[in-house]
Amino acid sequence: MRRDMVYLTVFSLFTSVAAADVPTTETFQNSIKMNFVRIEPGRFTMGFEGKALPKELPTKKGHFKNGDFDEKPAHQVAITKPFYMAVCEVTNAQYEKFDPNHQKYRGRRGYSKADDEAVVFVSWHDATAFCKWLSKKEQLPYRLPTEAEWEYACRAGTTTVFSTGDRLPSEFLKNNNEPLTVGKTAPNPWGLYDMHGNVEEWCCDWYGPYESGPQTDPVGAADGDFKVTRGGSHWTESYYLRSANRLGSHPDDRQWMIGFRVVMGLMPKAAYSPKSAPKRYQRHVSQTIGSAVGPDLQKPYFNGPHVFVRIGEGSYGPLFSEHNHFASVTECPNGDLLAAWFTCMDEMGRELGVAVSRLPYGQTQWQPASPFWDAPDRNDHTHALWYDGKGTIFHFNGLGVKYRNLALLLRKSTDNGVTWSKAKIILDHSDKLPNKIVESVFRAKTGEIVIPMDGAVIGISSDEGKTWSVPPGRLRGTHVGVTQLADGRLFAFGRHGVIDGKMPISISADMGKTWTYRAGPFQPIHSGRRVALMGLKEGPLFVASFCRGMMIKNDAGTEQAVTGLFAAISEDDGKTWPWRRPITDDGPGREIETMDGDPVMMDRRNSEPVGYLGVCQSADGLVHLVSSRNHYAFNLAWLKTAPPAASPQPPAPQKRKLPVKHVLGNIYRTTILPTRHNWAWNLNGGRNSPAESPIMSILQGKLLKIDTLSAGQFWLRTEKPEVFGAVDYKKGFTAEIRTKILKSAPKQRGIDLELYDGSGSRYAITITATGVYWYQGLIQGSAFLRFAQYVPIGQNLDNTDRMHTYRIAVRPDRVAQIYRDATLVGIKPYEYRTPRSPYIYFGAAAGVQALVEHVAYDLTGPSQP
Questions:
Q1: What pLDDT, on a 0 to 100 scale, did the predictor assign at position 526?
Q2: Domains, the chain
Q3: Is the full-model pTM beyond 0.85?
Q4: What is the distance, to the nearest Å, from the Cα of residue 419 to the centroid of all Cα atoms in its chain?
């Protein structure tokens, strides 16, 4: 039991209140039945506790074992005045005494229906207004807690990860759509409920970096983009429910994860934290309008690729070296370029922020990256930069709950991107639309600003971004690029939504109210890739996309196949695209880096295979195209010049003598069902059945039988860092599967073995009753590999007669030698796939019966049986 103490503080702002009216007890209940507990002054260490988190707690493959970057430096804080804190979060019933109209939000998206559930769909301004109302009603100083007060009260004298210790009991982890009833979990040592989970809680502070050194009654930054929230919420991993964890959102944000609790006590009078120093992209920026004198536009010009993603290795926040993607680029009035992109460990993760880099006019090297926009522990999915040609740069950005159901924000800069206006929510969280913006923003001929969005819609503003409408029509596909034709119709290319095997075109004659569709002239694109589309200042339409084996005419008048990133030009409003060429310097073959630094080959036939593209045209006439990593600059004359003829295709890879290794070092014995093995295989696909399902069974105590005759495809994959995750493509590696095919369906995959080295290189075979096939197809995830994209490397075989061993030996030059028993059946170079963690995978298509004895691998190098 806490000791009794008398509350002696006199509130100077409330001198008209009789002393008897001021609470003097350890607890009290106010007029709307909110219960409070007195929090005594004290000292504590604010921020990350300094000890590595329990290994099961960090997300993203353990990279956050030392907490988040914004929880440091840990520092001593003194709370010098007592205050009262509400025992529970504000409920619907309590809040609606202030705002009865809030009842319309009850049950929205299935959340917070009852009187005693925590109120949600309240902005920071709503929460502050409630405190002012309650203060006036009771003549007591109610307010939101400071961030320091909140963490002090949450810890309640503890120094562990949670107030419950280093692990959080499961009762605190509410699943999606569970009731948000307050006070149902155990209180912390000071009698406060739901300090971990239930709903996030608004604090009064602007979010900003921590200062080092001791502090007294800190109140945060003087200004900022986000208000702090604390405690985490339902539908959230326990990592984000820790005592030290910091979250935040735009103060106008109303959503289903944020509520609040109040404190009673005067606001501390400490000074605000010092203002942060300007970031790299904000320093030494010329405010003089660029000269717009570039290369001679009558002569073909090409420059690139130049890497714009410059982040040091091992960076885990606020910039991340792991994954950088989804680029946008704009010209500034002074001629500089700004490029922005996702930076994260995982695109679905809460750590995702937006980075930016500047290319000063006349230079070719981009500056090192800077943080640009990062709502704390919000997935800031999708963004776009756009220069209006009148001196203003627009920055659109998603404001996530997780990575779906975004609100959309807009801010502007009139000084070449050095400073930005306060962000404004222009589209609220939608129950129907994802509000994910796509990069090809443009101004319509009648003056409106048009923004394409995922959800296959567009947004339109007629007042320079103050208000927006979303026409009802739906485009074909996702990640659409949209522009306007000379006659005023809207024209778009989309990803997916294939028509007759081609990329879909959408056309609207009524500004997006309705759309018609037709097959375009280009190959469809899939995951990891996005089209770039715009109307050039000279008049033609420009598109950049990706292809595989697309035939184009070279300067010798003959056709040659090209693969990867290409551009095309149309001078008849998209009816025909006679000028096409790969985005390459046409030089001798060399390795360049693509997304996340993966090495790929660039030559006259091959260019980058992947990327979310962004494009703009600067005042000097150059087109600036960015992939997920590289910047290319060229002019219309170059685009309309036929590429040089390529030399004959390089000779096929030659066989190399490899060391013999009969038994590989790491063997998964299939006599133990996959989910029980220490490799920690994950079962996916099919009916998402457990490992004990009829799909898999043990025969004769030594063989795994796989039967998908009555089920869909399935696969087993392990990504554990200590298993195949330690692969290094520069050394080479080996993997094999020993199997007997009992039955496979004609023209369908059989038993699959797939390897991915984490550096862009995929090696995949499928084994049918009569052959062995190599995957040579689209850049996409494992679950979607179609048999039509495999090529035979061994046919007219009998794979049903007995157990055979199929081995993939990957050389350091990223060429695989494929063996069936001791016989070499194929030699194939890697196929690129979109980045993810390394994995080893095996599985089966539908209609397969097979026996598997083992799967094995060795990371010390390639070896033959």
A1: 87
A2: 12-264 (3.90.1580.10), 306-437 (2.120.10.10), 666-858 (2.60.120.200)
A3: yes
A4: 25
